[in-house]
Specification:
With 186 residues, the protein is an alpha/beta fold. The protein has one domain: Rossmann fold (3-Layer(aba) Sandwich). The protein contains 6 helices and 6 strands. Strands 1, 2, 3, 4, 5 and 6 form a 6-stranded mixed β-sheet that branches. The longest helix has 17 residues. 40% of the residues are buried.
C-alpha cells in the first residue's frame, strides 16, 4: 500500500509537520510504503482560472503540481495536513486544492471521469486558537477535495490551542492519535 502525506505547513518541525510524521510512522509500522510531500518546498503557481483549458483533466500551468497530482492519483491513501492560517487552510494547501480545478471540471462538468475505487483520506489540522469555525471551514474544503479525488474522508485529527513551534510534543495523546490515524489508514 502506498500512502502519501502532504504537508501544507511552511514550518518544518512545527506542530503540523510533527503530527504528519507520526501518522506516516503509523502507516509504515502497518507495512505501507510512505512518501512525504512538503508543499512549501515545491514551485506551484496558484490557479490561474485559465479561459482556455484542456479537456483531459490536466492543468495548463507547468510546474511541480503535475508530479503531486500524479502521486495523488496513484496513492492508496492520503494524509493531508495543514495549519490554520487566517481561519482556513494554509496558502500552500489552498494552492493545491485550487489547482485541482482542472480535474474537478473534467469530472463534474465534462463528466469524463468515472468514479473510481474509493481510497481513504485523512485530515490533520492544527490551529492556535479554540475556534471551532476555523476547523469546520478547513474541513469542508478538504472534504470537497477528497470527494473530487475519490478519497473517502475516513478520519481526522483536529488540534486546537497549539501555537508555539513544537507545542504538540507536550501532548502525547495528540501524538498517539496521529500515529493511530496513519496505522488505521493501512
Amino acid at each position: 500500500m502506498y500512502i502519501i502525506g502532504i504537508s501544507g505547513s511552511p514550518r518544518i518541525g512545527g506542530n503540523t509537520d510533527i503530527l504528519l510524521d507520526k501518522a506516516l510512522e503509523g502507516a509504515r509500522k502497518k507495512g505501507a510504503e510512505t512518501e512525504k510531500i512538503i508543499l512549501n518546498n515545491l514551485k506551484m503557481m496558484p490557479c490561474q482560472g485559465c479561459e482556455k483549458v484542456k479537456d483531459d483533466g490536466t492543468c495548463l500551468v507547468e510546474d511541480d503540481f503535475q508530479a503531486v497530482y500524479e502521486k495523488l492519483k496513484k496513492a492508496d491513501g492520503v494524509i493531508l495536513a495543514s495549519p490554520i492560517f487566517f481561519g482556513s487552510l494554509s496558502a500552500q494547501t489552498k494552492i493545491l486544492v485550487d489547482r485541482l480545478q482542472c480535474y474537478w471540471r473534467y469530472r463534474y462538468v465534462l463528466k469524463k471521469a468515472k468514479a473510481g475505487k474509493t481510497r481513504p483520506g485523512v485530515f490533520i489540522c492544527v490551529e492556535a486558537s479554540e475556534r471551532e469555525s476555523f476547523l469546520e471551514n478547513a474541513k469542508s474544503i478538504v472534504k470537497n477535495m477528497f470527494a473530487t479525488l475519490d478519497l473517502d474522508y475516513a478520519n481526522e485529527l483536529l488540534c486546537r490551542a497549539l501555537e508555539e513551534k513544537g507545542a504538540v510534543l507536550k501532548h502525547p495523546e495528540m501524538l498517539e492519535k496521529a500515529y493511530e490515524l496513519g496505522y488505521g489508514l493501512v
